[in-house]
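sry for the spam today, last one i promise. struct tokens for design, 445 residues
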């Protein structure tokens, strides 16, 4: 009898794309982002060719630190039985978050926790590939009891118990097949940030905003927060380009103190912003609550930099947000995002994921589609962020039709990058970065 297959490969890559050259991704807090991925590939000796791909998203400098954090988890993963981890990815999640010495660096926050998320997401990618299903369907088809077993309820039972989660998931199964058919036919609603990067000219903003509406998007988003006069002008430009029937959100990327957030949002209220995103520090639960109370009816959205399920719990308990924004790579992977989706369902708050980064659109679509099919049962007031760059580097890129995400059909988590992209953009010795370094050396002083 042959030995049970095990995880035998753990390869990491520091992949960086030079998006700062065109100011793609620029905002008030991050003016020069190079969208990057600290990338991990899990290999096995199962003989079926299946791999697990995952990554943590960063914006350039420091991606090497994120790769090193992922590398520090290698010994937890190599040698694990493939069948066991695919049947219970929670085994890996619990092992990585429970390492008593690595945990001291958090616990469950920052670079180490994002590294856990990258590895856990790679395990889910492997599990979905071996099951022959896209991740959203693997989750939607799963027994509610099994899904509850994947969630770490430590620190959140004062807001959500396992029994309450089980009841939500059992209720979510009603009408599941009909919603799956609707998803496959119509996709999931999206909004686009592509027109609104802070470094773009007014002309480019107006052109891209008009194109977004023509392409079927019913919501766009603008970056704000650097200069109020500029923001007023840009909001006026965008509103003129899209008309009154299209939603426009604004995103401050944590730029403001609480009082400043209130005053600035009120100054932009004439342009009817649907939500103001990250108006202050992502750790400031009470600050968000104060902003929300002061700027209504403008909604408050946050979550892309929220560190863990515990802070999400507090935001919901404090009534601090109207829109919860999960991120597929910020917290500890699929398992923790299941906890956050369940918390949002428990409090009746819509989830509109963050996806403004390399590969984040590819990942988070699966979580929202699971939520629609088998948990919340609705897409009302729910949209997934979409940005239009870097999808060409993925083997199973997102597909947008008339402003909606088409449901992925390929097995896995849509996380795998093209080998040629990995080779070209691995830092610092990939083809692109090596050529750039050589050109810099040859340039006259």
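last one done:
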């Amino acid at each position: 009898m042959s030995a049970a297959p095990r995880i035998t490969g753990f390869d990491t890559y520091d992949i960086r794309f030079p998006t700062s050259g065109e100011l793609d991704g620029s905002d008030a807090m991050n003016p020069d982002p190079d969208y990057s991925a600290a990338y991990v590939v899990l290999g096995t000796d199962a003989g079926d060719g299946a791999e697990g791909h995952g990554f943590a998203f960063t914006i350039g400098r420091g991606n090497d630190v994120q790769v090193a954090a992922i590398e520090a988890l290698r010994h937890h993963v190599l040698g694990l039985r493939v069948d066991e981890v695919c049947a219970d990815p929670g085994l890996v999640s619990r092992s990585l978050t429970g390492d008593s010495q690595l945990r001291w660096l958090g616990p469950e926050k920052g670079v180490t926790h994002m590294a856990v998320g990258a590895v856990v997401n790679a395990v889910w990618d492997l599990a979905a590939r071996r099951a022959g299903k896209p991740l959203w369907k693997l989750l939607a088809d799963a027994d509610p009891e099994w899904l509850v077993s994947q969630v770490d309820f430590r620190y959140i039972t004062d807001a959500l118990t396992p029994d309450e989660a089980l009841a939500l998931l059992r209720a979510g199964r009603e009408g599941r097949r009909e919603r799956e058919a609707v998803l496959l036919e119509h996709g999931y609603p999206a909004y686009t940030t592509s027109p609104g990067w802070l470094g773009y000219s007014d002309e480019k903003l107006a052109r891209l905003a008009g194109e977004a509406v023509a392409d079927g998007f019913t919501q766009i988003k603008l970056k704000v927060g650097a200069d109020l006069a500029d923001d007023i002008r840009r909001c006026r430009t965008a509103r003129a380009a899209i008309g009154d029937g299209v939603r426009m959100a604004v995103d401050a990327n944590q730029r403001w103190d609480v009082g400043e957030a209130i005053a600035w949002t009120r100054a932009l209220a004439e342009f009817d912003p649907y939500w103001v995103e990250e108006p202050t520090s992502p750790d400031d639960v009470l600050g968000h609550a104060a902003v929300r109370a002061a700027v209504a009816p403008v909604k408050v959205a946050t979550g892309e930099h929220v560190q863990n399920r515990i802070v999400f719990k507090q935001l919901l308990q404090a009534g601090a947000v109207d829109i919860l924004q999960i991120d597929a790579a910020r917290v500890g992977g699929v398992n923790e995002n299941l906890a956050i989706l369940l918390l949002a369902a428990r409090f009746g708050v819509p989830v509109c994921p963050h996806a403004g980064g390399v590969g984040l659109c590819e990942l988070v679509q699966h979580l929202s589609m699971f939520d629609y099919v088998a948990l919340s049962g609705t897409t009302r007031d729910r949209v997934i962020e979409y940005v239009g760059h870097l999808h060409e580097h993925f083997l199973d890129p997102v597909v947008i039709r008339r402003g909606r995400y088409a449901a992925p059909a390929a097995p896995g988590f849509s996380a795998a990058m093209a080998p040629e992209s990995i080779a070209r953009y691995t830092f610092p010795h990939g083809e692109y970065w090596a050529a750039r370094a050589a050109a810099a050396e040859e340039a006259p002083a």
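The two ends are 67 Å apart (CA to CA). ok im logging off now
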